Amino acid sequence: MKKLFTILFLFSIFISSAKSVFATQAGYSCTPAVVSKSVGDNVSVDIVLDARNFQIMGGEALLTYDTAKLTPNSTQVQPVTTATGWTAPIKNTIDTSLGKIDLDYGASQSAFKSQGTIGTVSFKVKDTGQAQINFIYFQAYDASPGVSTAWGNREVGKLSNVLTDATNCMISIGAGGPTASPTALPRTGSMSQTITLMTLGGMFVLASLFFFKTLL
Questions:
Q1: Is residue 155 classed as helix, strand or coil in its secondary structure?
Q2: 14 φ/ψ angles, rounded to the nearest 5 degrees
Q3: DSSP secondary structure string, 53-108?
Q4: How far apart are CA 89 and CA 119, in angstroms?
Q5: Could you give the 3-state DSSP secondary structure of residue 121?
Q6: Which of 41, 52, 163, 166 could pair covalently with 37 via S-S, beta carbons 3.0-4.6 A apart?
């Protein structure tokens, strides 16, 4: 019995350790994650913050996009604060030469604990292929300059970057163009031609019957 309790105790410690190792805090994503478009189309991409019930007091979403395939319709992101209740971003730029998006809400906003869109980017699709939109993110809790951040209290009373994951998105682009009309098959005859052939066929059958009757 003692061995059983010991095993259960060690197992509970293992489970607790595993939860702490695999626990995630804030995460970024963009939606739609995958979408198909044609050359000449417009496409809107939402930047989404998921606080996962942790208190997030701001953050900076840094992303890159494929300049060969996408052209932003504006030099700024459209800020969205209806979910977070945050004030306007302190930085909001789209560098069309580098293909870089920077949406920064700082680190002193009111605490946000849910999931919501913080900005929307609109693009014009200009070439075929696959266009990636990627967050500048390398590892959890990264304190390096020039990476995406989400500010919260990882330790009590100490504000730090609590971003633990980021999910990129992709736009699959086809050639596009006008929709092809259904191919019209050639006509094989008219109703009058059909009636004429049926009449001649009937007359031939009657003549054949008369001929065979005279032979009998």
A1: strand
A2: -60, -45
A3: TS-EEEEEEEEEE-TTTEEESSSS-EE--TTT-----SEEEEETTTTEEEEE--S-
A4: 10
A5: strand
A6: 41
For residue 97, what are its two tokens? Answer: 């030469």
List the pLDDT tens digit at each of the 216 positions of the chain.
544 434 433 343 343 333 333 448 999 999 999 999 999 999 999 999 999 999 999 999 999 999 999 999 999 999 999 999 999 999 999 999 999 999 999 999 999 999 999 999 999 999 999 999 999 999 999 989 999 999 999 888 899 999 999 999 999 999 975 333 333 333 333 344 444 445 555 565 555 555 545 655
Given a contact cutoff of 8 angstroms between Cβ atoms, the answer to whether 86 and 5 are in contact is no
| Residue that has been written with the tokens 């991409």 in this structure | 45
Rounded CA-CA distance 31/50 in Å is 12
User: How far is the C-alpha of 92 from the C-alpha of 106, rounded, in Å?
Assistant: 11
CA–CA dist 135, 190 (Å, integer): 65
2-13 b/e with 16+ CB inside 10 Å = b?
Answer: eeeeeeeeeeee
Instruction: Give the H/E segment covering residue 160.
Output: strand 158-161
Q: What is the pLDDT of residues 163-199, one digit of tens each?
A: 999 999 999 999 975 333 333 333 333 344 444 445 5
Please tell me what DSSP assigns to residue 127. S
The CATH class that applies to domain 24-174 reads mainly beta
The number of CA neighbours under 13 Å toward the Cβ of 39 is 11
